[in-house]
TrEMBL record:
Entry's Gene Ontology BP terms: L-histidine biosynthetic process
The family this protein is said to belong to: Belongs to the PRA-CH family.
Compartments it resides in: Cytoplasm
Designated gene of the protein: hisI
Protein name as catalogued: Phosphoribosyl-AMP cyclohydrolase
Organism: Ectopseudomonas oleovorans (Pseudomonas oleovorans)
Domain of life the protein comes from: Bacteria
């Protein structure tokens, strides 16, 4: 039934990197990891579900923050070892720092500079133990 999962080249930990990209703008929102179960559930539920390495459990994006990623399309790269999720980011915030994207720093003159503002204070989104997504 899930033969498509057998085509993926999982790493030695049984994971594959997954890039979430805005389905309308093409902006890369974040990168996380997926295992076989999380990818199968993502396809079945049409929402991003990742594998949290730090917590050692499934992570339904937005389960604490409300910032759910609604799935529009799944893509697999040519080497079958990276997934791209084309998503609608509900609430407009993908990053646990309260920003639209996790990629908010730019290298300028040998220094990483923050170039995007926080849209919502993480303290208003998460309790202290939930800030590690």
């Amino acid at each position: 039934m899930n033969d498509w999962l057998d085509e993926i080249r999982w790493n030695e930990d049984g994971l594959v990197p997954a890039i979430a990209q805005d389905h309308q703008t093409g902006r890369i929102l974040m990168m996380a990891w997926m295992n076989r179960e999380s990818l199968a559930l993502t396809a079945a539920e049409n929402r991003a579900i990742y594998w949290s390495r730090s917590r050692g459990k499934l992570w339904r994006k937005g389960e604490e923050s409300g910032h759910v990623q609604k799935l529009h399309e799944l893509r697999l790269d040519c080497d079958a070892d990276v997934i791209v999720l084309m998503v609608e980011q509900l609430g407009g915030i993908a990053c646990h720092t309260g920003r639209e994207s996790c990629f908010y720093r730019v290298l300028e003159d040998g220094t990483w500079k923050t170039v995007e503002a926080v849209l919502k204070d993480p303290a208003a989104i998460y309790s202290a133990e939930q800030r590690h997504d």
